[in-house]
What we know:
Layout: H1 2-59
Amino acid sequence: MDNNAQASAELILLFGGIMVVVLLAIYMYKVYVMDLGGEIQSKEVNEFNAKLEEISEIFM
């Protein structure tokens, strides 16, 4: 009976450890994606500003 309880406790600890690793990986991926989104947005703004400058040069 004690062996079954010990095996169950070890299995629960194993799943708990796996869950912690998965949650940390998800958090790190979320931060990475948010930073990537900022870079894309910044690139779009820079391209838009460049197009506006091209248009303003045409009319000057």
